[in-house]
Amino acid sequence: MRAAIFNGPHDIGVGERPDPVITHPTDAIVRVTLACVCGSDLWYYRGLSPHDLGAIGHEFIGVVDEIGSDVRDLAVGDLVVTPFTYSDGTCPICLAGWPSNCINGGGFGNHGIDGGQGEAVRVPFADTTLLKVPGSGHSQETLRSVLALSDVACTGHHAAVSGGVGPGMTVGVVGDGAVGLSAVLAAKRLGAARIIALSGNPSRQAVAREFGATDIVTERGDAAIEAVLAMTSGLGVEAALECVGTGQSMATAFAIARSGGMVGAVGAPHDVEVPIDTVIFRNVGLRGGVAPARRYIPELLPDVLAGRINPGRVLDFETDLEGIAEAYTAMDERRSIKSLVRVGGSMTPVVD
Amino acid sequence: MRAAIFNGPHDIGVGERPDPVITHPTDAIVRVTLACVCGSDLWYYRGLSPHDLGAIGHEFIGVVDEIGSDVRDLAVGDLVVTPFTYSDGTCPICLAGWPSNCINGGGFGNHGIDGGQGEAVRVPFADTTLLKVPGSGHSQETLRSVLALSDVACTGHHAAVSGGVGPGMTVGVVGDGAVGLSAVLAAKRLGAARIIALSGNPSRQAVAREFGATDIVTERGDAAIEAVLAMTSGLGVEAALECVGTGQSMATAFAIARSGGMVGAVGAPHDVEVPIDTVIFRNVGLRGGVAPARRYIPELLPDVLAGRINPGRVLDFETDLEGIAEAYTAMDERRSIKSLVRVGGSMTPVVD
Questions:
Q1: pLDDT at B351 over 90
Q2: Residues on chain B touching A162 (C-beta within 8 angstroms)
Q3: Which of B238, B260, B280 is nearest residue A269 as measured by Cβ atoms?
Q4: Are B27 and B68 spatial neighbours (Cβ–Cβ below 8 Å)?
Q5: What is the ipTM of this complex?
Q6: Contact of B84 with B293, CB cutoff 8 Å
Q7: Structure confidence at residue B67 as a pLDDT band (50, 70, 90)
Q8: What is the pLDDT of residues B317-348, one digit of tens each?
Q9: What's the pLDDT at B349?
């Protein structure tokens, strides 16, 4: 099959990889229809996080092409959304609601597992990993939002949930990438009354506004902190959502958090230091991480299918598998927020 | 009046300080009956945290001796317990449930505020700081436990609440000082099914058992981590309560925390680093800090008065104000868990 191949930092191409086959009775083979590029893929692309050479990509939707003998809840032809990690659904960690930390699980597109940026993927623990998308004839817009549930929308939701966002609250979002924008959407959906988005980029500000941001802070660093404090009577926000993963973004999140508040953090950390004095002396908690997407998708999918939320809006660049390199460079150069990759032409029947 | 005087590291004595007087109409003067020495006082005593010379101590109970003209809910003669911080009860942070972070509040025994280790204390915002202890003729044992509510019992409770402890959970407690033991008690009270206390000290192990610990780990460092993991099928504990404040104790707490779990931390931090990779990649949250004692005491006091919990059990050394130096050295040399200081002889009517 054709698939994106990670050849090393700043080198993504397309090549041939073996067609995936069922190796365990709980596997399914999914023919990928739509995939996208994650902010964490950019860390790999930039050489800032290690990644195996070969398959890459962990955000995709597709159609079940084959199932193993123990797969019960899925059938060939089902349209499915795949959380970015697979999970057995039965270990104590899964049962506690943390499928992304499944003790028998893992991620797609690395360490010998097929990547979502390719024509097909062997999905382990298919019944407890994949989620069937009900209905048919979904619009392209809906499908893009279903695709967003594979990671970015759930990751933004995890930032908001981890930050304890609830009705009437004042929330700050650090980061105007796809995850930060998704966190704005999630905060709005969870009832936040005021959502302050930190962004210096007009096109991202526009999406933030569409998603529910009530205020935009264009400053950076200390000036951004001062601006948020000034807008909140010096108190700061009840939930600060950290959606970048750098030392500065974490420092900003803690600095704008109100005493007794929370930092909901989902940025993959690079040189991040947690200000423990703020944790202890101002009672600002920290929670977040690799989103338990398999837990969240059942909650979010109905809102996507009903058009109540449109998380696919962050996908503002589009190409096909042969254009994968451009999908990365558009994000690397910040020309796009997030890149969509059309993969399966043969899957058009399920697409309007 | 007579009061403990902090003369610098390793030098606590008793001397004369001005009798406190009402300076604001919301003040009350409390005649101290019982005080105790906090683990954080030890940081000052050891020169590891800065402290003004002069008054010291923030854990005390006593009797209202005088009230300002705006005090409504208290009367002269009331037996009261004092949270270790004063708070106005009306600022947004107080209203959100974080009185220990009151924007107009502060702590006792430092920065010009009277210390609890003395005969009397001017208490700001008396109505919203002090809590009247109902009833009369309380036993010495009960009064010691009421005294424990001024800080240590609430701090242990805060560790457990911050760690999300609930019915049936498996909890680990790092630290066998008075706070760690109080955290064991709090975890038991909140319904934890299994409470693993880390302690190498037989007398503290005994208190931990009394308070509800089901398992004792006597190892330290990596061996302690291995032991806890071995006891929990390799998963770790759902809530790890950090009750020390050192780098090693925080590292241990995160290492024994189950993926998706929480670290509830209340140790005053000294050279503490938060393992951000554990936060993000294992979804282990961190919450805790300076306990909102004024919020917790109304919940805990009835249990103390009814004898359902006995947090004063951690007070295993007793002296009077003239013996204050010995109260500190007994703790400094780990001869005692926590020292009680009898102060107000004239207050005996309220004591059996």
A1: no
A2: 285
A3: B280
A4: yes
A5: 0.96
A6: yes
A7: very high
A8: 999 999 999 999 999 999 999 999 999 854 44
A9: 40
Note whether B293 and B149 are within 8 A (CB).
yes
Task: List residues of chain B with CB under 8 Å from any CB of chain A.
Answer: 92-93, 96-98, 100-101, 103, 162, 233, 235, 238, 245, 250, 258-260, 262, 265-269, 272-274, 276-277, 279-290, 292
**A317 to chain B nearest CA, in Å?**
28
Inter-chain residue contact B285 with A281, CB threshold 8 Å? no
Successive 10-residue mean pLDDT values, chain A, 352 residues: 97 96 98 96 94 96 98 98 98 98 96 95 98 96 98 98 98 98 98 98 97 97 97 98 97 98 96 97 98 98 98 97 97 96 64 37
Residue A116 to residue A85: CA distance in whole angstroms = 11
Six token digits for residue A293: 């997407």
Domain with CATH 3.90.180.10 in chain B: 2-151+292-350
Q: Which CATH superfamily is domain A156-288 in?
A: NAD(P)-binding Rossmann-like Domain (3.40.50.720)
Q: Do B260 and A93 touch (CB under 8 A)?
A: yes
Contact B269 A280 (CB under 8 A): yes
Cα separation of the two ends of chain A: 25
Among candidate residues A126, A114, A97, the one with its CA nearest the CA of residue A26 = A126
Structure tokens at A282: 């101002």
- Using a CB–CB cut-off of 8 Å, the residues of A that contact B are 92-93, 96-98, 100-101, 103, 162, 233, 235, 238, 245, 250, 258-260, 262, 265-269, 272-274, 276-277, 279-290, 292
Choose among B233, B266, B276: nearest Cβ to A274: B276
Fold category of B2-151+292-350 in CATH: Quinone Oxidoreductase; Chain A, domain 1 (3.90.180)
Coil, strand, or helix at residue B214? Answer: coil
Which residues of chain B form CATH 3.40.50.720?
156-288
Its pTM stands at 0.96
Among B96, B266, B285, select the one facing A285 at the smallest CB separation: B285
Average pLDDT over residues B199-226: 97
Q: What pLDDT score was predicted for residue A344? A: 81
CA-only gyration radius of chain A, Å: 20
pLDDT at B345 (0 to 100): 56
Contact call for residues A12 and A54 (beta carbons, < 8 A): no
